[in-house]
Amino acid sequence: MIEIALALSLAVNIFMLWYTRNTLSSLFYISENIGSLYEIIADFGVHLKAVYELERFYGDPTLTNLLEHANAVREEIEVYEEILLLSEPPETEEEELDDSQETQEN
Q1: How many Å apart are CA 18 and CA 53, to the nearest integer?
Q2: Is 9 inside a domain boundary?
Q3: What is the DSSP letter of 54?
Q4: How far apart, in whole angstroms, are the C-alpha atoms of residue 89 and residue 82?
Q5: Does residue 83 fall inside a structural domain?
Q6: 50, 65 in Cβ contact below 8 A?
Q7: Residue 99 falls within a domain, yes or no?
Q8: Model-level pTM?
Q9: pLDDT tens digit string along 8-34?
Q10: How far apart are CA 76 and CA 79, in angstroms?
């Protein structure tokens, strides 16, 4: 009787380890992709802002709305990124520039 309980317990523990491993690997995969998506959206926002600031397009209401929409999408993704990003958060271009400026000052 005890042998059956031990065998059943062993089988359940092995299944739980396998399930946990697979779930964590899926979560890490999602986390990496969310980070990549955030970087793409952030780069798009920077590019859009640069286009908006060109003299030719400055003040264009369509670009203004597009810039606001891009910022709203980026902010929404940041919420999910903070929840799902398990690894170190990606550095944005602004943080990279700050880091490079601090390095040059030293």
Answers
A1: 53
A2: no
A3: S
A4: 8
A5: yes
A6: no
A7: no
A8: 0.50
A9: 999 999 999 999 999 999 888 887 787
A10: 5
Longest alpha-carbon distance in the chain: 83
- Residues ≥6 apart with Cβ < 8 Å to 35: 81, 85, 87, 89, 90
105 versus 1: which is more confidently predicted?
A: 1
Angle among Cα 36, 70, 74 to the nearest 5 degrees reads 45
- Say how many domains are in the chain: 1
Question: Domain of 67?
Answer: 23-91
Cβ atoms of 20 and 70 within 8 Å: the answer is: no
Which string of DSSP letters, residue by residue, matches 8-51?
Answer: HHHHHHHHHHHHHHHHHHHHHHHHHHHHHHHHHHHHHHHHHHHH
CA distance 103 to 93: 15
- High-pLDDT (> 70) share of the chain, %: 75
Identify whether 44 is part of a domain. yes
pLDDT of residue 49: 78
Q: Which of 4-8, 46-50, 67-71, 79-83 has the highest mean pLDDT?
A: 4-8
Give the residue with greater pLDDT, 86 vs 21. 21
